[in-house]
UniProtKB/TrEMBL annotation:
Source species taxonomy: Eukaryota, Viridiplantae, Streptophyta, Embryophyta, Tracheophyta
Coiled coil segments of this chain: none
Domain of life: Eukaryota
Domain Pectinesterase inhibitor residue range list: 26-136
Keyword Disulfide bond applies: yes
Family to which this protein belongs: Belongs to the PMEI family.
Name of the protein described by the UniProt record: Pectinesterase inhibitor domain-containing protein
Keyword Signal attributed: yes
Length: 176
């Protein structure tokens, strides 16, 4: 039950920006007929803002306009998805390189090559989460679906890198 309520609240929140006083009577009649299923103000707001819907003289005309309004939105969403897929493919490369690098770091650490491990992690791993985040942030999609994920990775890799630096600089006694 919570989800339909959330959707209605969202619709109501979006509607005021679109609300227009000059809605046609066919829009009013159509929206009034839908009142139980659709928030009236949202219905009138969305349709009144569209010239074709506002000019419609019957319900069929309003329906055609509503389909077009939806198609325009779906087209825009499809474009965003395409940008995201491209950017996420690049992010997949970044994270896959990062993982390879971490495997090398593990080998270096195991062999006691702290300076190699330190160099490797800073050159090939540390910046990757930020690279992904910047790519999505600056990308055409104007959406970053996992800035939180990137942030967690960035914190963890900096932590690992910082600890390796301690070993490398011999700031702690690492002999057991
Ligand atoms: C349609 O309804 C709105 C209020 O929702 C009202 O302001 C407007 O005058 C009405 N238009 C017609 C043509 O009935
Ligand atoms: C809907 O879109 C089609 C294709 O773009 C267009 O030919 C038609 O006139 C539009 N109809 C309305 C009511 O907006
Ligand atoms: C470790 O780094 C040194 C230079 O700092 C390099 O000569 C050496 O080949 C590296 N070892 C490995 C296993 O990468
Ligand atoms: C970093 O990655 C590149 C490309 O995979 C690799 O050639 C290089 O050896 C790695 N390590 C360092 C320290 O640059």
């Amino acid at each position: 039950m919570a989800q339909p309520i959330a959707i209605i609240l969202l619709a109501v929140a979006i509607a005021p920006g679109l609300a227009v006083g000059s809605s046609s009577s066919v829009i009013n009649t159509t929206c009034a007929a839908l009142k139980i299923l659709q928030p009236y103000d949202y219905c009138v707001g969305v349709l009144s803002a569209d010239p074709a819907a506002a000019a419609a003289t019957d319900v069929a005309g309003v329906a055609a306009a509503a389909v077009n309004i939806t198609a325009v939105k779906a087209e825009s969403t499809l474009r965003i998805i395409t940008y995201l897929v491209d950017d996420l493919k690049t992010c997949r490369e970044y994270y896959s390189n990062m993982l390879e690098s971490l495997a090398d770091v593990r080998v270096d650490l195991g062999a006691g090559r702290f300076s190699n491990a330190s160099f490797e992690i800073s050159v090939n791993a540390t910046a990757r989460p930020d690279d992904c985040d910047i790519l999505l942030f600056e990308g055409n999609a104007h959406k970053d679906p996992f800035t939180h994920e990137n942030g967690e990775n960035a914190l963890l890799v900096r932590l690992a890198s910082g600890i390796i630096d301690l070993l490398n600089k011999n700031l702690v006694n690492h002999g057991f």
